[in-house]
Amino acid sequence: MLLAEVLVIVTLMMVIVVVMIVVMVIVKVVVMVVVMIVIDVKVAVVVIMVVFVMIVVEVVMEMMVKMALAVIVVVVMVI
């Protein structure tokens, strides 16, 4: 039981790290695209997309943190 829970926690941490890396890469790509494109309409669309993505990422991160806390609480209760 204990081993499985530790594995779950480690997996969660790894997932969070991967998500962070992906977000960083996406942000860099978006910035490059924005720099490359100078047309107002396209820039506006890109900005809107970036804002939307950031909001989604924030929500996902919040959910992950809550899940991690729940797992930790369960582990503590089991121990």
From TrEMBL:
Presence of the UniProt keyword Membrane in the record: yes
Transmembrane spans: 6-27, 34-57, 63-78
Keyword terms, alphabetized: Membrane, Transmembrane, Transmembrane helix
Name recorded for this polypeptide: Uncharacterized protein
Organism: Dreissena polymorpha (Zebra mussel)
